[in-house]
Amino acid sequence: xxxxxxxxxxxxxxxxxxxxxxxxxxxxxxxxxxxxxxxxxxxxxxxxxxxxxxxxxxxxxxxxxxxxxxxxxxxxxxxxxxxxxxxxxxxxxxxxxxxxxxxxxxxxxxxxxxxxxxxxxxxxxxxxxxxxxxxxxxxxxxxxxxxxxxxxxxxxxxxxxxxxxxxxxxxxxxxxxxxxxxxxxxxxxxxxxxxxxxxxxxxxxxxxxxxxxxxxxxxxxxxxxxxxxxxxxxxxxxxxxxxxxxxxxxxxxxxxxxxxxxxxxxxxxxxxxxxxxxxxxxxxxxxxxxxxxxxxxxxxxxxxxxxxxxxxxxxxxxxxxxxxxxxxxxxxxxxxxxxxxxxxxxxxxxxxxxxxxxxxxxxxxxxxxxxxxxxxxxxxxxxxxxxxxxxxxxxxxxxxxxxxxxxxxxxxxxxxxxxxxxxxxxxxxxxxxxxxxxxxxxxxxxxxxxxxxxxxxxxxxxxxxxxxx
Length: 469
Prior knowledge:
The structure is a single chain. By secondary structure, the chain is mainly α. It has a domain at 376-468. 66% of the residues lie in helices and 1% in strands. The chain has helices spanning 2-20, 27-43, 45-48, 54-62, 66-75, 79-88, 92-101, 105-118, 120-129, 139-149, 157-167, 174-185, 191-196, 204-213, 217-226, 230-239, 243-250, 256-273, 278-288, 296-299, 313-350, 387-393, 400-419, 423-437, 446-450, 458-468, and strands at residues 376-378, 384-386. A two-stranded antiparallel sheet has the order 1-2. The longest helix is centred in the last third of the chain and has 38 residues, at 313-350.
């Protein structure tokens, strides 16, 4: 504290001495005292900077010693004071040089708005060198610059900076992308705006409102398409007379009904704006016939009332030829279906007369015992199964609940068949039993296909192999 007080007192004495040597006769003494004073400030800057240099700077400033004030601010690295001084004197480049020597982000955020208004290119260059800056906090400075750049012919420096942030620094902040989008939207050409609409980080609803307000027509259509609002995209394209863009968007929907609806809108517009000459009608028909979904009968109500049939005679003949081909194809299909139906009827009639041979050594495919001697089923594939074996096998790949339900129903049917004396009822019960137990061969049917996805019990197989050995 004592050193600070003494150094501050000496500073006051130096300033008084310099003020007393202002006359031209004492210029050599003034220069000598000035050198001593600067050497003193450089040597004792730490003692004078105890309160951030405010006391010493206040003393020097009160005596109007601007050069000494800047010298002392440089010594204690009081960059805000240096930057403010250069800005007040409109020394923009010097202010930027000082700002680039320091590493405080807040200094950039504080002084960038005024510097962007007067030296945008150099300010952006300083931003790009200082990569620790948060681009979102620089948006106010870019907005200040935008107000002064609207009538300028020079490249937009805000766009230059944001392009670097987005492309090279991979910024994903929606605020950055949306602001860059707004800058693109205000450019005379839409090419950059249309390319930037592919960014996944922009707000499409905001982009649509902005482009509609600024009458960016192609951009509005592109946004409608990205939002899958294809009907709005087609209507906007037709409103602005861009039929080709309308066609592109009409082909994008996957729903056939919507696609047909959009092409009808295009057809209505094309015929309404086509010249009533033969060539005009022919050109309109060619435009609409690009969509295979639209037929001649769909286009007929759209023709002008005074259109002559000669204007589209060839198209009508082509359409009729297509219908004739379709009718011939349908006839062939109907004949094939009729032949198939007849074969099925013959097979159904012969079904009760089908039979198979059971040999004396025919074995059950499940238990390997002779099939004859017990109740068994014989399938058209030649496989035979005992009734009991088949009942046990059909539940092998079922859940426990399904197994319980099937077993309970099979037991009930067996009991009812054994106790029922009514032959007709017994026949119905037997048929139900057969449908449950013998609906298909367990080796050739869906059950065998389903078991392909079952895991093999390898341990059980190895145990069986050991027993066999």
